[in-house]
Specification:
Elements lengths: L9 H6 L7 H15 L14 H11 L3 E4 L6 H7 L7 E5 L14 H10 L5 E5 L4 E5 L6 H4 L1 E3 L1 H5 L10 E3 L1 H4 L3 E6 L6 H4 L3 H4 L4 E3 L2 E3 L5 E7 L2 H4 L6 H6 L2 E4 L6 H11 L8 H16 L11 H22 L14 H5 L13 H21 L5 H4 L7 E5 L4 H8 L5 H7 L8 H17 L5 E4 L2 E5 L1
Parallel strand pairs: 1-10, 1-11, 4-7, 7-10
Antiparallel strand pairs: 2-3, 5-6, 8-9, 12-14, 13-14
Length: 463
């Protein structure tokens, strides 16, 4: 954050050459500057580079208010919140103004009066761009007063008349003047309340309690919504839809690499989770999104894969604490823990009642096999299969330390090549080596080259 500008009066501000710009002009110019220099315009947004972001950039350059439409967990709110970062870092406002008037172009009655009285001595404060983004979750109990404003009975009791504009207690929308206002889950807003936004979006003013309060608003209004055919909780009324300049559809990550990047970026991992295990979770999530057993109208949120990776890490941390390992590293045996903990995050089709756990278990095996083929396909793994040629077994599980697992294997031909394929060197820590070994053993089992038996949290490969 750069230091706050030093100008404290209107005269000092005008002397710097400051000129009024609307919020949409400000966003347009700052976005163009980032596009010209190649700087990241929407930090933290993954997988939208060739689809959503070009449409969003076009809408902002056109100066349109917009709706982000998509299933749950597609990053709509995250994308909406990045728009505030396109604002100027510091912006002047009239000191004490509830609607953040521009000192060189005040619009409210109070600030116009002060400008007439004080002239160049009109006091100025500086607002950081983080203060210029306002967000409201639309709920059925939201009122017009919450969004637009209402008469303040305290001010009326002080002797002001109802027709006095200064009796108004402003709502969130006018208080977001000269900023970005985000409205989450717009269809949940009662239809009669949506009507209150008509003037904001079209005439850019507000009206309160039966008398016209002409207050020209300067803001960008962004809303998010789920598809109406899924939510059934409400709808965006047609006249309001018409007043939004753009409707932008979001989607889930289309590539496994993007899903892995998103999980790595967002998950708060309490233990080391090798990338191949993150990929298993990512492929598991993608399998759910493509499964006919899952209600695809509700979608499978990115929060599912993020929470899944965090559950895998937690299982590894639990093992490290129980068996005394110095470093907690996740392994394949930790991945099944995501099934019972995340079962409630997925909505299934009606015909799958009673089979939910089986569906998840099957898709998890498929995701593990796909990761094994993608990471280790074509590699000579005969050094591992030869270990079991004479009826030997290897026992692993949630509470088997990495050192015990590796001791059962001993020196294994081909292990160094496996580590190279997984992005590790020969000096990898024992926990990382054990994670690589378990991927090989599970992959050999899933490709029907190795037997496996699981009893009471213990897994035995071989014989």
């Amino acid at each position: 954050m750069t230091p706050t500008p030093v100008q404290r009066t209107l005269g000092e501000l005008v002397a710097t050459g400051y000129a009024h710009r609307s919020v949409k002009q400000e966003l347009r110019e700052n976005l163009l500057a980032r596009l010209r220099t190649g700087a990241e315009a929407f930090p933290g947004i993954v997988g939208f580079d060739d689809t959503v972001l070009p449409e969003l950039e076009a809408a902002l350059l056109a100066g349109h208010d917009l709706v982000l439409l998509g299933e749950r967990g597609q990053g709509k709110s995250r994308l909406m919140r990045t728009l505030g970062q396109l604002l100027d870092e510091w912006t002047p406002a009239v000191e004490g103004c509830e609607v953040n008037d521009d000192p060189v172009r005040p619009v409210c009655v109070r600030c116009r009066r002060l400008e007439a009285e004080l002239g160049d001595d009109l006091p100025v404060v500086w607002r950081h761009r983080t203060e210029r983004y306002t967000e409201k979750l639309a709920t059925p109990d939201t009122s017009v007063g919450d969004l637009v404003g209402d008469v303040d009975p305290v001010k009326v009791a002080e002797g002001r008349t109802l027709g006095d504009p200064e009796t108004v207690h402003y709502g969130l929308v006018p208080r977001s003047n000269r900023g970005v206002f985000g409205l989450n889950e717009l269809p949940d807003l009662a239809e009669r309340i949506q009507v209150a936004l008509f003037n904001v979006l079209e005439e850019r003013d507000i009206q309160i309690r039966g008398y016209s309060l002409r207050l020209p608003l300067d803001l960008l209004l962004v809303a998010t919504a789920n598809p109406e055919d899924y939510t059934n909780r409400g709808r965006i009324i047609t006249p309001l839809k018409d007043r939004f300049g753009a409707e932008i559809r979001t989607h889930y990550q289309q590539d496994v690499e993007d899903e892995v990047r998103l999980i790595t970026q967002e998950a708060d991992l309490v233990a080391q989770v090798p990338e191949h295990l993150v990929e298993v979770v990512a492929r598991f999530t993608r399998g759910l999104r493509e499964s006919s057993a899952v209600d695809q109208r509700s979608g499978v949120s990115a929060r599912f894969s993020i929470a899944g990776a965090e559950s895998v890490a937690a299982s590894a941390l639990r093992r490290a604490a129980r068996v005394g390992e110095q470093e907690a590293v996740a392994r394949i045996c930790d991945v099944p823990t995501v099934v019972p903990t995340l079962l409630g995050k997925v909505e299934f089709e009606m015909g799958e009642e009673g089979r939910e756990r089986d569906v998840l278990d099957h898709l998890l095996r498929v995701a593990t096999a796909e990761t094994f083929r993608a990471r280790l396909g074509g590699l000579d793994l005969s050094g591992f299969t030869d270990l079991f040629a004479n009826g030997e077994v290897v026992e692993t599980g949630e509470l088997v330390p990495a050192a015990d697992l590796l001791a059962q294997l001993g020196p294994t031909p081909g292990l160094s090549k496996v580590l190279d394929r997984l992005g590790h060197g020969d000096d990898a820590a024992p926990g990382v080596v054990a994670a690589a070994v378990e991927l090989v053993l599970e992959g050999l089992h899933l490709t029907r080259r190795l037997d496996k038996d699981t009893v009471a949290g213990r897994t035995v490969y071989g014989a």
